[in-house]
Amino acid sequence: QVQVVESGGGLVQAGGSLRLSCAASGRTFSFYRMGWFRQSPGKERESVAAISASGGSTSYADSVRGRFTISRDNAKNTVYLQMNNLKPEDTAVYYCNAVSVSNWRTPIGSWGPGTQVTVSS
To answer: Which pLDDT value is given to residue 1?
Structure first.
């Protein structure tokens, strides 16, 4: 299966921006639909965004649509999440994973370590 390592998190003020990266291993990365998830203490894991294997189709949670953009570079085995106009409620550990072709909210691979995003007000 695809193995991933997330990076790019940090501490930013509300209204700021961050770009997260998800570096994937394996030569079959380009065959997988990929997604971003996030989780805060005491909350359920939330699906944030997903992108098709080719990069031609994307999905977003209502809470981030218009602010976040998912993209991928298959030549670099990397998927990105550009986060703009960040809000305190975006604070969470962000994870990436391969997701089901039929349901972008369903992870199918192994979890990486995640990267912490903290947004202050």
So the answer is: 67
Residue range 21-56, pLDDT digits in tens: 999 988 889 999 999 999 998 899 999 999 999 999
Average pLDDT over residues 64-71: 98
Dihedral pair phi/psi, residue 89, rounded to 5° = -70, -10
Written in H, E and C, the secondary structure of the chain is CCCEEEECCEEEECCCCEEEEEEECCCCHHHCEEEEEEECCCCCCEEEEEECCCCCCEEECCCCECCEEEEEEHHHCEEEEEECCCCHHHCEEEEEEEECCCCCCCECCCCCCCEEEEEEC
Number of C-beta neighbours around residue 1 at 10 A: 12
Q: Give the list of residues 6+ apart from residue 90 with CB closer than 8 angstroms, or none.
A: 38, 64, 83, 117, 119
**CB neighbours of residue 37 within 10 Å:** 22
